[in-house]
Amino acid sequence: MDRPTHRVEYETMLLGRHSLEFAGGSARAAGHLERSAYILLSRIRVEGPMSIRQLSEAFGLDPSTLNRQTSAMVRSGLAERIPDPEGGIARKFRITAEGERRLDEERGRIVASLDKIMADWPPEDVQTFADCLKRFNADIERLSGRPWPRP
User: Fold this and answer.
1) Do 27 and 59 meet the contact criterion of CB atoms below 8 Å apart?
2) Does 91 reside within a domain?
3) Which residues contact 29 (CB under 8 A, 6 or more apart)?
4) Helix (H) / strand (E) containing 94
5) What is the pLDDT of residues 7-59, one digit of tens each?
6) CATH code (residue 73)
7) Does the residue 59 lie in any domain?
8) Which residues belong to any copy of the HTH marR-type domain (predicted)?
9) How far apart, in whole angstroms, are the C-alpha atoms of residue 145 and residue 28?
10) What is the pTM for the complete model shown?
């Protein structure tokens, strides 16, 4: 581990194993969104209704994977299939009021956990970390050709 990018690789691997929903928690609580639903609903919220093809392009995932994930969200009442508001043939997925509520709850839990995790950090360190994460993500998005819209 002689280069900083070796440390970044190792630390991002470790980050991937953590659940940020609970600081110090280990079990998945009832009522929490699945990770895939959290990410899909977040994208649909920012982007507006999206078709399977649009989701596939946005995430670089196979349509069959997205069909399974969106079907689970529809069954759970988090999203609904609607006709294309712009008149296209494909059906689109729109977040429901329940999906909005659950997404807000989940995001609130995660932010509360992050507040606990970084409680002893100086505010300027939290800001610097947030800025570096945004830059890191933006560069990944630029290289992959799949930018994430930010509110």
Assistant:
1) no
2) yes
3) 21, 22
4) strand 91-95
5) 889 988 888 877 765 544 444 566 788 989 999 999 999 999 999 999 999 99
6) 1.10.10.10
7) yes
8) 26-126
9) 33
10) 0.85
